[in-house]
Amino acid sequence: MPIVSVRWRSKVLAMVVGMVLMLSGCGVSKMGGQDGKPRPGERSAQEVFTDFMDAVDDTVQKSGADWPIWNRSHTAGFFPGPCSVRSRDDGRAYQTQIEGGPVEDPQASVDAMKAYWESKGYKITHVFDNRGDNTTGIEIHAVTPRGMLLNFTPTKTVSFVKVVGECTLDPAADRRTT
User: Fold this and answer.
1) What residues form DSSP beta bridges with 92?
2) In the 8-state DSSP scheme, what is residue 35?
3) Which of 10, 96, 151, 171 lies 20 to 30 Å (CA to CA) from residue 46?
4) CB atoms within 10 A of CB 37
5) Residue 112 vs residues 32, 117, 178: alpha-carbon distances, Å
6) Dist. CA 71–CA 20, nearest whole Å
7) 3-state secondary structure of 174
8) Each residue's pLDDT tens digit, 11-70
9) How far apart are CA 83 and CA 96, in angstroms?
10) Distance from CA of residue 96 to its chain's centroid?
11) Cβ-contact 154, 63 below 8 angstroms
């Protein structure tokens, strides 16, 4: 009987110590993974939106095309679509596609963008460079370490940039940006 009592006391003591540590915040991260970085969905809508806008602007600036409708300071009117973090459509992700001018050499433009994105640690997922005789454009896709998707399509007649931002669970992303 005393052995059972000692084991029982040890378990109760371990549970009490664990609960005290958890309630005090010691030794337990309330947010983030083991490396201290936020897990998917945990970053604020503002952080995710800023990175999204920076990615669009970086791509536009490095593209070699003119983008008359793009202005980094125009942040109003973005409403993020649904995305999934833990369950279907539980989060929101900012996204846009913009149209720009032509580039003289689509292949050189894609090569430069590929090198730039790789220098930032982005993973190139696809390069579509054989789109048939009727098409002069090439398309490149990349994903950032935090999961943002980027597409760049330069052609001799028009160019496109599409960015789908990181998914966030922040309720602030449920509203249109102002």
Assistant:
1) 82, 168
2) T
3) 151
4) 12
5) 34, 9, 34
6) 51
7) helix
8) 444 444 444 334 433 333 345 566 778 888 889 999 999 999 999 999 999 999 999 999
9) 14
10) 13
11) yes
